[in-house]
Specification:
The complex is a heterodimer of chains A (109) and B (113).
Chain A lengths: L3 E4 L2 E5 L4 E7 L3 E9 L5 E7 L2 E5 L2 E6 L4 E6 L8 E9 L5 E3 L3 E6 L1
Parallel strand pairs in A: 2-11
Antiparallel strand pairs in A: 1-3, 3-8, 4-5, 4-9, 6-7, 7-8, 9-10, 9-11
Chain B lengths: L3 E4 L2 E4 L5 E7 L5 E8 L3 E10 L2 E4 L6 E7 L2 E6 L8 E8 L7 E3 L3 E5 L1
Parallel strand pairs in B: 2-11
Antiparallel strand pairs in B: 1-3, 3-8, 4-5, 4-9, 5-6, 7-8, 9-10, 9-11
Classes of the chains: A mainly beta (109), B mainly beta (113).
């Protein structure tokens, strides 16, 4: 079992829809990261959060420490949001990240 | 964008040959990481470094070695490449461990034939 689980694995949405990607973790972490990877591209850090909620443009990330769960929301989705979204927990006992396997998002015009 | 550069970006090599990938940063961050990304596995840690000449193994370190002779460079070497090492390799940096932002390179696509 992976330390970090994401759902769904694949997601197709119509442009304009509200999107939610979920992440659950089973290990102790000091922070949770949301990353974005476009096809054939590099990895970009979207958010790092250890509590509460953060917002950047149309993206919102939340975390519930007690439930060991985080969500990434995209409002008014756009085809340029099509990418793989990865959540990663920063280990609080060592120098590494625990990665989910990613959610592949396709937004159709 | 954080100053982190991987080279080469693409490489095709033959089984049994040595290969070295380079990660260069201009951020003066203490921690540097090498990951491989494979379908169905996500990113997996190969090795990491917490300072010059200070390195440690990750979960998939067999067949790989690393070196960090200066803060800005972290080298990943495949001593004798195998087809199972065909993958996309990402370097990452962070200022401190854990609760700090991580920055990733653009990746190196390595094919071992």
């Amino acid at each position: 079992k992976n330390e970090v689980e994401q759902s769904p694995q694949n997601l197709t949405a119509q442009e304009g829809e509200f999107i939610t990607i979920n992440c659950s973790y089973s290990v102790g972490i000091s922070a949770l990261h949301w990353l974005q990877q476009h096809p054939g591209g590099g990895i970009v850090s979207l958010f790092m959060l250890s509590s509460g909620k953060k917002k950047h443009g149309r993206l919102i990330a939340t975390i519930n420490i007690q439930e060991k769960h985080s969500s990434l929301h995209i409002t008014a989705s756009h085809p340029r949001d099509s990418a793989v979204y990865i959540c990663a927990g920063a280990s609080n006992t060592g120098n590494q990240f625990y990665f989910g396997t990613g959610t592949s998002l396709t937004v159709i015009p | 964008d954080a100053g982190i550069t991987q080279s080469p970006r693409h490489k095709v090599t033959e089984t049994g040959t040595p290969v070295t990938l380079r990660c260069h940063q201009t951020e003066n961050h203490r921690y540097m990481y090498w990951y491989r990304q494979d379908p169905g596995h996500g990113l997996r840690l190969i090795h990491y470094s917490y300072g010059v000449k200070d390195t440690d193994k990750g979960e998939v370190s067999d067949g790989y070695s690393v070196s960090r002779s200066k803060t800005e460079d972290f080298l990943l070497t495949l001593e004798s490449a195998t087809s199972s090492q065909t993958s996309v390799y990402f370097c990452a940096i962070s200022e401190e461990r854990g609760n700090t932002e991580a920055f990733f390179g653009q990746g190196t696509r390595l094919t071992v034939v």
